[in-house]
Structures are given as C-alpha cells and as structure tokens.
Amino acid sequence: MNKKLSGAFVVVLIAAAGWYLTQSLATENPVSAVPSGASKAVAGAPLANVVVPAELSARAQQGEKYFNSVCASCHGANAAGQDGVAPPFVHRIYEPSHHGDMAFILAARNGVRAHHWPFGDMPPIEQPLTDAVLGAIVSYVRELQRANGIN
Fold this sequence. Notes:
Layout: H1 3-27, H2 58-70, H3 72-75, H4 101-110, H5 131-147
Helix pairs in contact: 2-5, 4-5
C-alpha cells in the first residue's frame, strides 16, 4: 500500500472513531435529563437535574453571578441547559478531559460551531468579558460539574 492511501485510511478511521465517540457521548447523560415522569420535554425546560453544592468557593460564587447575567439566558439556571435552546454544561461531554477550560473561554469569545448537540452554532458573547470574568465562570461550571460527579 502506498503512503498516500495509508494516510487517507488512517484519517478516515480517526474520523469514524471520533464520530462514533461523539454519538455515544451525546446519548449517555450521567446527570438525569428531564424528570423521569415527563413524557415530552417542554421547550426551555432544563435538560439536566443539577445538584448544586452546599458551598461554592469565593471565585465560583463570583462566577455564578457572571454566569447568571451572561450565560444563563441560554444555558439555563445552574448550567442545566434549556430544551430547544442550549446544552447543559453539567454533562459528561464537558468534562475537563474533553472540553478544557480554554474551550469555554474560546467559545465565549469566538463562538463555536455546533458539534455535539442539535442546537446550532453558538455566537460569540457580544459584550467583551475579561479573563478574570471568564475564569470565574469556568470555576463555577467546574464546581457544579464536580458536585455532579463530572471530573
């Protein structure tokens, strides 16, 4: 087999594995989605039941305030997502090993193309946010994730 054909095969194999992984992750939600008795999700309803920690660090408390003013209108209270609007951040897909802190920062600054969820592309946040504000928001999200078993 020549090198070009071998290289193309490897690229196709990696792409297929990546697609399979994202499909399996999107269907596995360690945090229960929609209440168990619900037959149909209501538009705007939370997509995850989020356990909020009894105490947040000072930085995460500040991040919660920023999140509520900048992010919650789409990503819901306590980052639980909203059906038909935006995904929950308290979900295995956003664990630090898959979406590092910088992924959140870049998404807020530059927007992001839809790749795990059917909500469409996320536009960049219109108001400029400082590194400190974005860092506090990420701290808040990470503390919520840890409280819900996402490390």
